Amino acid sequence: MIQQSPVMRICISCRKTYDRKNLLKITKDHKEGIMFQKGMGRSAYICKSRKCYSDSKIKKKLQKALKTFLEPEFIEIFEKEITSYNVLTNKGI
Ligand SMILES: [Zn+2]
């Protein structure tokens, strides 16, 4: 039997390790700029716990991880993205 081991990534906020499937990926794409769950370039992962994504320091942490400047609007888009992602993945539970 072949057992596929999950790809583990660290949440940039709580520093805990999770299966990549349970994290929201934020990528600074070379061409498109900041993207969620797709794109090529420097990436950061964040878990879906409210404590993490609503952390007041999250923007700073992301800027550091992605080595980029994030627009003030970013955090609004980010919160929408992660909450809709939560709804999607929590379906049926
Ligand atoms: Zn976390």
- Overall pLDDT level: 91
pLDDT < 50 runs, ≥5 residues: none
Work out the strand percent: 25-35%
CATH topology: Hypothetical Cytosolic Protein, Chain: A
Structural class: alpha+beta
The tally of structural domains comes to: 1
Q: Rough shape?
A: globular
Number-wise, the strands total 5
CATH architecture: 2-Layer Sandwich
**What percent of residues adopt helix (DSSP H or I)?**
25-40%
> Bound small molecules, which ones?
zinc ion
Which features characterize this protein?
alpha+beta; 3 helices; binds zinc ion
Please describe what this structure looks like.
- There is one protein chain.
- This protein has one domain (8-90): YlxR-like (Hypothetical Cytosolic Protein, Chain: A).
- The longest helix has 17 residues, at 74-90.
- Helix content is 32%, strand content 26%.
- The chain has 3 helices and 5 strands.
- The protein is of the alpha+beta class and 93 residues long.
- A hairpin with a 3-residue loop joins strand 3 and strand 4.
- The protein starts with 7 loop residues before the first strand and ends with a helix.
- It has helices at 50-53, 58-66, 74-90; strands spanning 8-10, 17-19, 23-29, 33-36, 41-47.
- The chain has a 3-stranded antiparallel sheet. It has a two-stranded antiparallel sheet with strand order 1-2.
- Residues 11, 13-14, 16, 47, 49, 52 line the site of zinc ion.
